Structure formats: C-alpha cells, structure tokens
Amino acid sequence: MAVLVGKKAPSFNSAAVIDGDEIVEDFSLDQYIGKKNVVLFFYPKDFTFVCPTELHAFQEQLKEFEDRDTQVVAVSTDTEQSHWGWLQMSKDDGGIKGITYPVVADTNKTISYNYDVLAGDFYYDEDDQLATSGEMVAYRGLFLIDKEGVVRHQLVNDMPLGRNVKEALRMIDALQFFEENGEVCPANWEQGKSGMKDTHEGVADYLSKN
C-alpha cells in the first residue's frame, strides 16, 4: 500500500456523473486547486449493499463538508452509464437517487491503481498471457486533499467495512485548526477542544491538563 500523505494527489481526467444526472467526459480535481479541499472516496461497486449506505451518508452530511470548503467526490471502477443508472434508482430500491456530488467512472482502473486502492493486480501467467489476481475493483479508500492538491490524510478499508463519515469531517476540522492556529491536534481531538504546541513543553502542558 502506497502512502500518499504529504505528496501531490495523483491527477486524473475521467468521465463522471454530476448533480445526479449529467454525464461529463472530462472531470478533474484540478478545478478545486486553490479553492477547496477535497474528500475523494473510492467504493467497490454500483448496485451493491454497503456502498449505497456510504454514498447516502456522505450526501446527508454534504452541507457540513460544504461549510468547511470541502468538495466530496466518489469514485468506483464502474462506467459512467452504470453510475447514471444507479443514480436513477430510489433509495428504497437500493439506489442512490438524490446524490448530488460527482461520481467518477474509473473504467480503465487507472485512478484506483494510482491511488493504490485497486484490490486486484495484473500479471503474466506461464503462457505469457495477461491475467489478474483478485477482483479488479477498489477498496474503500478515502483521501483528504488540501487546497494545494496535497494528500493530508488517507484511510483504506476492506470491502465489508463501511466508513464513518463523521471521522472524515473530524479530520477536515483538525487540518483547518492546524492551518489556522499552528497548533497540532492530539489523540481524539474534536472541534472545540484545545490543541497543543508542537514542543516538549507543549506536550507536557497538554497532558497535565487532560
């Protein structure tokens, strides 16, 4: 697993469905550089079971992300047509109708590969034929990318393990607190709590009070 924290987020240009209905052919994260943070999250497949719970959970908290100058973007290895079809299905039927943030089609699997969340891998077998090991879909990866396009946080879950959207919000709060105050965020930090100076004295002072 590649650690992308501290590095420029891999760029891409791909088809996506935006606003729940419109297919665009050249979606890119470059449009947010200098303007917004991005929470980029990968999910395995359309028309599945854990995945719609996550997509709806991000939608339910979308205003919280927007209030933090953060754009939510979803990615899976399905096609844009598959995304569009799923977006037309109601929540009661297992669909994701009502999702308004972009859903990117990583049909060629290059985005998942470059973010190192692709579950499977390519190799050549004993007959020199291209083959795969594992299913060529994405793990549940999540990346917090700052306004400069740098990855500041990453988390990767296995397929059965759904993510906690509130944790993604907490990490944005921690990043913004650090950027605004120059203080680091200790374990279990939450918005409204104090940070600490990144020194031995700062740690000692914080631990003596908590």
Strand order of the largest sheet: 2-1-5-4-3-8-9
Low-confidence spans: none
Tell me the radius of gyration.
19 Å
Supply the number of helical segments. Answer: 6
Helix content: 25-40%
> How does CATH name the architecture of the largest domain?
3-Layer(aba) Sandwich
Number of domains: 2
The sequence of SSEs as H and E is EEEHHEHEHEEEEHH
Please state the structural category. alpha+beta
CATH level-3 fold name of the largest domain: Glutaredoxin
Q: Mind telling me the CATH class of the largest domain?
A: Alpha Beta
The first-to-last residue Cα distance is: 35 Å
Mean pLDDT: 95
Q: Main β-sheet: number of strands, strand sense, barrel status?
A: 7 strands, mixed
Silhouette: globular
**How many β-strands, per DSSP?**
9
Fourth CATH level, the homologous superfamily of the largest domain? Glutaredoxin
Structural overview:
- This protein has 210 residues and is of the alpha+beta class.
- It folds into 2 domains: 14-162, Glutaredoxin, CATH 3.40.30; 164-210, no CATH class.
- It contains 6 helices and 9 strands, in the order βββααβαβαββββαα.
- The chain starts with 13 loop residues before the first strand and ends with a helix.
Please describe the topology of this protein:
Blueprint: E1 14-18, E2 22-27, E3 37-42, H1 50-60, H2 62-67, E4 70-76, H3 80-87, E5 103-105, H4 110-114, E6 121-124, E7 130-133, E8 140-145, E9 151-157, H5 165-181, H6 200-209
Parallel strand pairs: 3-4, 4-5
Antiparallel strand pairs: 1-2, 1-5, 3-8, 6-7, 8-9
